[in-house]
């Protein structure tokens, strides 16, 4: 044996196997024979051939390309070392051996690392394995790579840190399979999370601990931590609180306040931690003078009147930031896209005043050059472009760019909308890039549910609901929908009530201001029409077929007018002989005119803005119409956001809706089915049980022979409804919100005068869950009678969460 040399490499604490170099020269023994002469060594050490053995996945060519040793070259220790390291650097092999035979053939023997057959997870409770699969870079059917596995362990531990589990320890194991591959098993020892036991606020004199802690994310563990997910230590929460406290002070006049880097102390048990924030409040400042200098496009006073910071007011950083943006918008609306605002502060520490000077350089006017759209996989470009209030070649306008972003968001088709300005100052132009991320706009659902039946013997009413809704059909913003509802008749005779509806809308015909919609529905509804105090219930069955069409046009921004026509055929069948008023059947034709104003932030689920609507319609005799009557309704809905932070946004919803139906001539009374009631899943939910609806009654003879009468519900000709709701996000990522509400309503007969004692009230709470399948509502409503709260009514429904759409 001429020589033997072994190499072992240690990298990232993992051994990549053993390597050996054996240079065998027949008939020579290194210990007994003197070294060959240099010329002889070169002759016998030359490589005549390179042979690769043992590889299964990696090709010969791939290995040869990694080597510097080629046929005809002489072997040197440095060349061998270099090539071994090069082969190992690929992370594909666990053993490499070089052998040089008598004939100069270099045999490279490799042992590949095993292939991954599957990736398994053990012990994952706090963090689900499904949430990790996209983050793990180790993949099935690839060769084991210890570097990637080490990185994956850090990824897993980081996911636990984000949940407050700083002591979690991740490991992995390789388990062989019968096929020779391995399964990678990630294992986790979760341990217990680190809990915040105490939060210390030091140095605060003006604001109390309680006031500061109301908006802080770092909170001590408490009884409600399970519900709020507070009380667990997280680095990002502490860092955010440092910024939040500083901002809060600077927004209340303490312009120079700072919060020193917080100190966290881990207890000896490694389970509890205390966090201390050191606050330097500084002095409180008011605004002295506000000046605007430089390139003025209007008088200084006119510009200053548009700013929020005023002289002698408390300095607030939020208003300062808003004023900086406002100045950019003021100039941007005149085409000055490259305006530069440079603020300077002259501080009077004796009088504690901040004197602010905004020096403005307006630059040149700019024009919109290109508008590009990226990220829309489904939605057509034209649908997005018609929501954009700017166009190529127009003068730059900052307000219209913001309006364009809001309009695209209002469509409700996208999770993320960004309008990025790409300025080209040299050419006085700006490119606008619209970046969007789409979300699901279609839903298909079916459900079986039950709700309490206050009059039924079983105590429950079962129902079936199914719904299909698509708000962006084939990416053209077409709206299509189908729904079906089936429930047992309250009569208890084995029959069913049902409703089937279909609709289609095109919100913009040829990308213009006109819209179009059609709908049709079929229903059978059997209901009690005698009051709950009646001894013998009387039921009436109505079968209705309806079809309608409408066209609309945008008059000005956010204001639209609709003109609709509908025809319906109604067949009634009472359980006992009744007067023509209840027994009448026939065809109703209606023409309706609707005016709406909608500047809410989202059509499907608004949280801010106002929605106004007024509708007038009348029945007439044109083709098959048999009734003449009129109806009017109005709706006012305000959405008021209350944002405690960027991640915790709540809102109020206040709405009022009056309705009125009336006769056009004395010969034609208002059909029974057109009269007004309140008490269902959307309006006056506390009166949604059988026989509880808000309506008007009359004494009706049910036996012509005996003259026996009963109290019948006949519906009113006027109704008033109002609601106050407050929404609190519980799991924003899942679209789950808590809602509390109070409702008030009244229904009046034709000549009845309104008075407050005729108004009914209810209160309640529930959950609104906007899922990719459909919006769900789970609510409990309690009627209020004579100051007392009545029994709960459970409401479950599937459908739009927008009050505007439900009206």
Strand content: over 45%
Structural class: mainly beta
Spatial shape: globular
State the CATH architecture of the largest domain.
Beta Barrel
Q: Which CATH class of the largest domain applies here?
A: Mainly Beta
Question: Main sheet?
Answer: 17 strands, antiparallel
Give the distance, in angstroms, between the N- and C-terminal Cα atoms.
Answer: 96 Å
Tally of individual helices:
14
The averaged pLDDT comes out at 84
- Work out the radius of gyration: 38 Å
Query: Would you identify the CATH H-level superfamily of the largest domain?
Result: membrane protein fhac: a member of the omp85/tpsb transporter family
What level of helicity do the residues show? 10-25%
Unreliable residue stretches = 1-44, 454-458
At CATH level 3, the topology of the largest domain is: Porin
Number of strands: 36
Could you say how many structural domains there are in total?
A: 6
InterPro entries: Bac_surfAg_D15 (IPR000184), BamA/TamA_POTRA (IPR010827), D15-like (IPR039910), OM_assembly_BamA (IPR023707), POTRA (IPR034746)
Signal peptide: 1-31
Domain POTRA: 45-113, 366-439
GO biological process, one term: membrane assembly
């Amino acid at each position: 044996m001429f020589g033997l040399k072994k190499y072992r490499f240690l990298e990232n604490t993992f051994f990549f196997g053993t390597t050996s170099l054996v240079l065998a020269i027949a008939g020579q023994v290194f210990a007994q024979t003197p070294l060959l002469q240099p010329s002889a060594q070169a002759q016998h050490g030359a490589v005549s051939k390179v042979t690769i053995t043992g590889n299964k996945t990696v090709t010969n060519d791939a290995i040869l390309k990694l080597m510097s040793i080629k046929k005809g070259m002489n072997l040197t220790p440095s060349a061998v070392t270099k090539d071994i390291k090069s082969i190992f650097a690929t992370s594909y092999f666990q053993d490499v051996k070089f052998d040089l035979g008598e004939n100069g053939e270099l045999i490279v023997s490799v042992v590949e690392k095993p292939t991954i057959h599957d990736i398994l997870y053990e012990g994952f409770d706090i963090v689900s394995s499904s949430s990790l699969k996209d983050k793990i870079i180790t993949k099935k059917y690839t060769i084991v790579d210890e570097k990637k596995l080490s990185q994956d362990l850090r990824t897993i531990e980081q996911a636990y840190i984000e949940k407050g589990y700083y002591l979690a320890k991740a490991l992995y194991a390789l388990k062989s399979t019968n096929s020779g591959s391995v399964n990678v098993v990630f294992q986790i020892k979760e341990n217990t999370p680190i809990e915040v036991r105490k939060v210390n606020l030091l140095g605060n004199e003006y604001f109390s601990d309680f006031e500061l802690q109301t908006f802080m994310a770092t909170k001590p563990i408490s009884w409600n931590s399970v519900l709020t997910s507070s009380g667990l230590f997280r680095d990002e929460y502490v860092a955010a609180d440092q910024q939040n406290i500083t901002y809060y002070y600077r927004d209340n006049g303490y312009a120079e306040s700072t919060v020193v880097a917080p100190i966290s102390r881990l207890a000896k048990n490694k389970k509890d931690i205390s966090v201390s924030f050191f606050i330097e409040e500084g002095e409180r400042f008011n605004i002295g003078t506000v000046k605007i200098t430089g390139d003025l496009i209007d008088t200084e006073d006119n510009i200053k009147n548009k700013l929020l910071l005023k002289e002698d007011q408390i300095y607030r950083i939020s208003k300062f930031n808003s004023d900086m943006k406002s100045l950019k918008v003021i100039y941007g609306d005149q085409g000055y896209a490259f305006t530069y605002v440079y603020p300077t502060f002259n501080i009077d520490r004796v009088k504690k005043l901040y004197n602010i000077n905004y020096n403005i350089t307006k630059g040149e006017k700019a024009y919109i050059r290109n508008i590009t759209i990226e990220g829309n996989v489904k939605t057509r470009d034209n649908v997005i472009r018609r929501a954009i209030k700017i166009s190529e070649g127009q003068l730059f306008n900052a307000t219209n760019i913001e309006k364009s972003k809001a309009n695209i968001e209002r469509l409700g088709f996208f999770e993320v909308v960004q309008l990025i300005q790409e300025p080209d100052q040299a050419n006085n132009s700006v490119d606008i890039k619209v970046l969007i991320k789409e979300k699901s706009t279609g839903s298909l659902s079916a459900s079986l549910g039950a709700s309490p039946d206050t009059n039924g013997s079983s105590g429950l009413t079962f129902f079936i609901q199914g719904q299909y809704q698509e708000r962006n059909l084939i990416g053209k913003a077409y709206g299509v929908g189908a729904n079906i509802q089936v429930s047992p008749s309250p009569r208890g005779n084995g029959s069913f009530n049902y409703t089937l509806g279909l609709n289609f809308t095109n919100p913009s015909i040829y990308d213009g201001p006109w819209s179009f919609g059609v709908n049709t529905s079929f229903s059978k509804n059997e209901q009690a029409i005698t009051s709950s105090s009646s001894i013998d219930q009387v039921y009436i069955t109505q079968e209705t077929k309806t079809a309608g069409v409408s066209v609309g046009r945008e008059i000005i921004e956010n204001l639209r007018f609709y003109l609709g026509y509908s025809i319906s055929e109604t067949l009634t069948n009472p359980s006992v002989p009744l007067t023509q008023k209840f027994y009448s059947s026939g065809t109703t034709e209606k023409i309706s005119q609707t005016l709406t104003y909608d500047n809410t932030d989202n059509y499907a689920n608004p949280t801010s803005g106002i929605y106004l609507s007024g509708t007038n319609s009348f029945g007439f005799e044109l083709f098959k119409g048999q009734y003449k009557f009129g109806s009017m309704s109005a709706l006012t809905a305000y959405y008021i956001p209350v944002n405690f932070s960027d991640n915790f946004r709540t809102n109020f919803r206040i709405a009022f809706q009056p309705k009125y139906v009336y006769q056009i001539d004395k010969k034609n009374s208002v059909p029974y089915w057109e009269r007004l009631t309140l008490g269902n899943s959307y309006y006056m939910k506390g009166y949604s049980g059988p026989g509880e609806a808000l309506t008007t009654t009359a004494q009706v003879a049910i036996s012509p022979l005996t003259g026996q009468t009963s109290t019948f519900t006949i519906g009113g000709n006027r109704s008033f409804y109002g609601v106050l709701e407050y929404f609190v996000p519980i799991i924003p990522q899942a679209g789950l919100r808590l809602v509390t509400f109070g409702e008030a309503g009244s229904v009046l007969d034709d000549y009845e005068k309104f008075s407050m004692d005729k108004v009914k009230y209810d209160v309640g709470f529930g959950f609104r869950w906007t899922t990719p399948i459909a919006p769900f509502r789970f609510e409990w409503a309690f009627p209020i009678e004579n100051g007392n709260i009545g029994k709960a009514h459970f409401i479950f429904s599937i459908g739009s969460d927008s009050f505007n759409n439900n009206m």
